[in-house]
Amino acid sequence: MGNGAYDAAYGQSLTDPEGFWGEAAKAIDWVTPPQRVLDADRPPFYRWFTGGTLNTCYNALDRHVAAGRGDQAALHYDSPVTDTKQTITYAALLDRVATFAGALASLGVTKGDRVVIYMPMVPEAVIAMLACARLGAVHSVVFGGFAPAELAARIEDAKPTVIVAASCGVEPTRVVEYKPLLDAALDRSSHKPESVIVLQRPQARAAVGERDTDWEEMDWDELVSDAEPADCVAVAATDPLYVLYTSGTTGRPKGIVRDNGGHAVALRWSMGNIYGIEPGDTWFTASDVGWVVGHSYIVYAPLLAGATSVLYEGKPVGTPDASAFWRVIAAYGVKAMFTAPTAYRAIKRDDPDGALMRAHDLSSLETVFLAGERLDPDTYAWATERLGVPVVDNWWQTETGWPIAANLRGLQPMPIKPGSPTVPTPGFDVRILGERGEELPAGEEGAICIKLPLPPGTLPTLWGDDDRYVSGYLSAFDGYYLTGDGGLVDEDGYLYVMGRTDDVLNVAGHRLSTGSIEAALAGHPAVAECAVIGVNDELKGQVPRALVVVKAGIDGAADGERIRAELKQRVRDEVGAIASLQRVDIVTALPKTRSGKILRKTMREIADGKTPNVPGTIEDASVLETLAPVLKAPA
In this protein, which residues make up the domain named AMP-binding enzyme C-terminal (predicted)? Predict the structure, then answer.
């Protein structure tokens, strides 16, 4: 198949990375242009754009205002949980960010200092992030409502000068007070910030400064009212912009570092070339700023591109119903949206016929992008059929910050193959390696690895821990970054990601990916969502076990026996007799992180009789409590 524009870009990105990324860097305003595009002096610690200085906030805000885009909307804040809507122009956002940066500076925050941000999906979270970038400070956003132990571990590791928090988060059925959680975290932490700033929300105001503390506490409004706006501080391209801790870590948390220069160049390039979003377009990413997708594609990439970003404080269903996304798309003239497949599965479960779409004008919508969990073919087919637009999978990680593999809708749209995120993105030299590090031929499943150097925008290291970066990601195969996912590349060069390598089952010596079994289950008309885990078995080593959520309107109790039998047969037909699915449980919900990832490892540990390490990012711990007796029950 002819992929002229893609082949040319991908080829140049691997054979002449300096030329490719040097050209991409022209879309960013530099204070001092880089002296070198790729600095390979100290492998495996490659650096991008050394010698260059810039300011990320200037590139996201000031330059657009200077170019005459000040009256364009930068953010549409839409909050069904608080019944609030607000549109903030580039000029107004710049004013608010410069003022808050001044407030942070008045508390002693300077270049290189860390600021922990513990907030829900409100404009002030974006303002705080950009204000840190303006000062050259390093932000570390922690999901609002994160448990005290997890928050304390991040405070210990990042050692922030200031913490910026909100008084509460608002969920569809409850208000979560953040301040008691933050106080408990600060009690546990040996590091105490110099100041804590609290955004008071009317749904639950926080009692501030009622107890003896050795840190100062102040109200957001009171602080900002006296602040002098701050100018942008030039930082080195290789200086950190933020640290983002990965979920589900044990012991010391893993802080993914993102630099300023490579990040700005890669995200600006991705917005037009991957997502087809140009200056002035409206873009809706339904995620959370506490997750990498929120950092990259709610905040930085759309603003670097001069687009309009929708900041949505709500859920795909339940705020108020499964039409929420369609309302937002119609209200703001959204050109493309990005969310996790789990969000679309929730909509499909509640409104299988897509009846709620019909009340909304979705004519502005050109593309839907999904990432974060494997996009099963059934969800892909449902969304494609109902919406009538391309539904595009893209695959990446917190560590990479932007897609490793995608269908590049701006550069050169390609035919979509269900189950594949399409092809490696320029800059990512993706290889499938066998157990001895040998490159495997097309069609053969192995470890998905990326040949070094990684492109701009990816992690240069872990926060304060170069050794752990090397041992955790670069030591399995010399000269390669280990993604931790298994998969294959087909004869057309399309990548298939079959799941985490620890989700590969070894059934009587046969290696099976949970992804292939889940794909077979998901194709059943009754299945809304499913997860497959491998549990220990004396005879076969491991056997697959399925947990299935059925669609709304289907009686799992009355029809359960028939559905289970049909699902077992589907797996036998599509994956093979060796997969022999002995057990299918129909359950009401699957445990997930707040970013939509199903907690397969946690379920596997419970099923094997272990005490699991439950990640702090779990969305609803009660789901796990309900499932525990099912998982522990003997086969």
Answer: 517-597
